[in-house]
Amino acid sequence: MSATTTSGPTSVHDLDLPKFEIDVNDGADTLLANRLAASEEHWLARTDLGYMVTRYDDVVAQLRDKRWHSAAGQLLQLSGVTDPDQLARQGTSILSAEGDEHTRLRRLVGRAFTPRAADRLRPFMREVVGGLIDQVAADGRCDFAVDICDPYPIPIICELLGAPKEDWQLFSRWADDIMKIFNFNLHEDLPAINKASDELDRYTRRLIDIRRDQPADDLLTDLIGAEEEGDRLTTEELLRLVQAVILGGTDTTRNQLGCAVALFAAHPDQWRLLAEQPELAPQAVDEVMRYFGAVRGTGRIASEDIVYRDVLFPKGTFLALSVSTANRDPGVFGDDPNTFDITRPPAAQTHLTFGAGIHYCLGAALAKAELQEALPMLAARLPGVRIDGEVSWKPSQAGIFGPQHLPIAFEPGH
After folding, report:
1. Closest to 367 (Cα-Cα) out of 60, 117, 92, 182
2. CA distance to 48, 198, 293, per residue, from 300 (Å)
3. What's 405's domain CATH number?
4. With contact defined as beta carbons under 8 Å apart, do 337 and 287 qualify?
């Protein structure tokens, strides 16, 4: 009897794949166009760090496969940092934990991040954004990124955590500096990141001590009291979680709001429609995040040899999961995924800007609420929004993308 042979999976390193290169001078439109071109050619592309997954079903599959670990815990290593003392500072947070540790943390804190918990803050969100609009409405122009986006989320995060108003500026500075970890310029930024992280930890320790003696109606009190079968968060875990809340709750909202208004300025009919029909806010937010999400991708590292679609990804392989191209996949979002339409019927599958799988954004409900409250009020009170000068964007390699300066003009006095 003759023997039969079967071929095994092909190593990803041996595939003939398109090469995707990032030019730091590329704008958002060029970058997305290049990614979409790569996605039409293949579901995989080579990058300088590893490989990029370009299509919706494949991105979802990797996000849901627990063997692919979040790259958030290895940002320093990926940026070339080798100092063991510096690496030891990272610790483990809910953003980077895996396996049983991650399951435990999500189980303990999940009830504190429900839509109902976010809804408690909606009146305060309206108060904050209304006050920011009051400062610019009469002028008919502003730098939207600086005057509205930057200050909007900080009071909300402070209210969420129970930090007093006089400390808002501290949190704003800490958030700015800690978020530099995503700019891939750590050789210059590490001193500022470490200083902000240390100051935030000291502040949070004091606030934890106060809340243990004087509970309040805030997230920190909820987290201190979180318990599951006798299990509680340690002080170190609380510190890491507060930092994760600041990381996830400030820069993402700032940038997504900036991306939204830049997008609406290019689609004035949609801006008018939102002002006329504020009940479209939930759909509008989903469409904005699908069409122009501030988070355009996320990184994963193979924790073991992984075979997917008959392709072998050796342990240690780095994958960039392209959320921006997945969100334009015609197989999911219809024949016109490159059209921005806030009345678009909901797809059977949602956009991936919040991720999927075990690392789905813990603060998704809060972020949605912030945008749902801000955008209709802005549309009503800043009619006729248009770009009024040169827009400057964050570098194309930034982990969270958005405008640094967004000069706009609008009809004054509303």
Report:
1. 117
2. 15, 27, 19
3. 1.10.630.10
4. no
